[in-house]
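are you around this afternoon, could really use another pair of eyes. what follows is a protein written twice so to speak, once as letters and once as structure tokens for the fold. i want to understand how the tokens follow from the sequence so walk me through it. anything you notice is useful, everything is just below.
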Amino acid sequence: MKLKRIKRCIVSKNLKILRAFIDAIRVVNGDIFVSVAYRKGRAFCRYDGDFNLKYRVEEECLSGMGFGDYRGFAVDEEGNFILTGLHNGENVVSLFRLDKNGKVAYTTYINDIGLLESMAIDSKRNLYLHSPLKEAPVYRYSNDLSEVKPVGEFPSERDGVSGRIAQIAIDKEDNLIVVYETSPAIIQKYSPQGKCIFEKIFEPADESIDLLSQVLDFTINPDNNNLYVLLNELDKRGRPVKILNPDGDEEDRFFLPSCTRRIHITKNDILYSSGTIFGLPGILLSWGIYGAITLIDKYRLQG
């Protein structure tokens, strides 16, 4: 598997912010949605396919409307930015929807969700929320939030809060993918009816950097439902991405730059990655202005 970089966005210069960190990248209908954390909070941004900024919404503005502390986002098929916040101490999750212009179009609140860690939306606009404090790893809410259903079971090996923290996503067939990040990483896949399709365990490699965070991110190829898992490992080739087929078996792997922390793949094998470069390389890339720069690279996968 080879990579050809076709475009780069230097987020630090584009948004004029220092020491930024990309929480997540999503691409829907050609537009790129990112959550960018920096010293003043977060900026929720929407770019077109050429990284021209369409809008930027500051977390601080939403906080004044009762948003709470940011916990995650998803994007529906119409390109609405769905943001979740948490009101600490109250176990209340806020749900804010931004329209195509970045304006708040809808807000609501969901009770009894403490320590929200991840969210996803399926093709029917059902909402999936993950909290390590609940009895089930994921709860599925209907589009109007009138119905709620638990999905899946925590792995038997995971009995502490930190071990139960996961990332979740939905594939093109509305299967639910749950990835427990801590070592040994565990991946579960559930059908839309809640049946477990597989559960895979990843033993850490000798070159794993941090056993408490074995998986940094994952993404699902919409063309074939393959999983691309970004591992917290490094060697001279960079940071590995493991490709799993829909049955959870490894088919291939490739390497991204060592600074990579987030990935997202779209149709036709277009891969987006982000990371922050420090030191002399960061100074050179930012023309001496920032010293540490955050990038989003756009690649075409070949072979």
DSSP finds three helices and 24 strands in the chain. The chain has a mean pLDDT of 90.
